[in-house]
Design a protein that fits this description.
two-stranded antiparallel sheet, alpha+beta, 325 residues, 29% helix, extended
Length: 325
């Protein structure tokens, strides 16, 4: 089933317009998540919206937005009033300017989206805008309204489509000055830098997200599977530490010595992993075992034998659409 678009409207460059749809390029829905439950009953906790003073539950139709101006003073703002000040870009992404991608500070990046033609018409105009941006090797800056808020969006070609990245406003980015003022200005010797550079060169490689593994997610799946099948949970041994670093030069030399010991094995493992053919992407939750009592004796027997294998390595599922904001 195709994901649902978070936003539909028009992409406009001067008088060139085409209908488009916006989809989130990332998803957290496949990560293991938890609900809060009552330890005594095992029932899920339910939250109610109540008046802070009276304690009475408040219905949805009686809940409105309010801006806090004092301890107990709020300015009520209605939906109609918010709609009244809605901007023209509610249903249109207007391209205002084109800038070099290198000009955009990474701190301003929020999240990526895919922008695609909506329907059978407008593909020509979409292609014109996409290829113009590509040929000029620049990023198009526009405005889009998501969940009643106007956002700045940076558009750039990605294969046959466009990727849009939401950007922060200047008031949302903190200055580094107040954090970096107390950093000491130290003098480093050439030998120290040469040793550090040698370590970096040994660890250098091409960026490949396929080699990343979420170890905590894997441990969560392993824990849940073991608890489902009644296996004992062993306490984790305390991690070994190298102690306090007293001499920086000695630490650099020791790091190089350690790299020589582990580099061959790490290289073989990486090459072996890279040569494996990519498998069909499965759902993350498929790695979790079935709940006892819902699949009969056969399912329970499989669950007993499967925990270790199932928790070896979780496999990601295709990203599902999620409400933008």
């Amino acid at each position: 089933m195709a994901p649902r678009a978070n936003w539909k409207g028009f992409l406009r460059l001067s008088l060139v317009t085409c209908p488009v749809a916006l989809y989130p390029a990332t998803s957290d829905t496949e990560k293991v998540s938890f609900n809060q439950i009552n330890r005594k009953t095992g029932h899920r906790i339910k939250y109610l919206k109540v008046d802070a003073e009276t304690g009475d539950e408040v219905t949805s139709e009686d809940i409105v937005k309010g801006y806090k101006v004092d301890t107990d003073t709020y300015i009520e703002v209605t939906k109609d009033e918010l709609d009244e000040i809605a901007l023209d870009s509610t249903h249109t992404i207007d391209i205002d300017e084109f800038v070099p991608k290198t000009d955009i500070d990474n701190r301003y990046l929020i999240r990526p989206y895919y922008l695609v033609p909506d329907g059978k018409v407008g593909h020509d105009a979409y292609a014109v805008i996409r290829e113009t941006i590509r040929s000029m090797d620049k990023v198009a800056i526009g405005r889009v309204v998501l969940t009643n808020r106007e956002h700045i969006i940076a558009l750039e070609p990605l294969e046959s489509g466009l990727m849009g990245t939401l950007l922060r406003y200047p008031y949302e980015v903190r200055s580094e000055t107040e954090y970096f003022d107390d950093i000491q200005d130290v003098k480093l010797t050439k030998d120290m830098l040469d040793l550090a550079r040698h370590i970096v060169e040994k660890k250098s490689g091409a960026f490949d997200p396929e080699l990343f593994e979420d170890h905590y997610e894997t441990a969560l799946i392993d824990l849940i599977n073991k608890k489902r099948s009644g296996m004992p949970i062993a306490a984790k041994a305390a991690p070994k530490t190298g102690g306090n670093v007293i001499n920086l030069m000695d630490a650099l030399k020791k790091s190089i010595a350690n790299e020589k010991d582990v580099a061959p094995a790490a290289k073989v493992a990486k090459e072996s992993k890279a040569k494996k053919p990519k498998k069909r992407v499965e759902g993350q939750r498929e790695m979790l075992l079935p709940i006892s009592g819902k699949g009969g004796k056969d399912a329970a027997a499989k669950a007993k034998d499967a925990p270790k294998k199932a928790a070896d390595k979780p496999v990601r599922a295709p990203a599902r659409a999620k409400k933008a904001g």
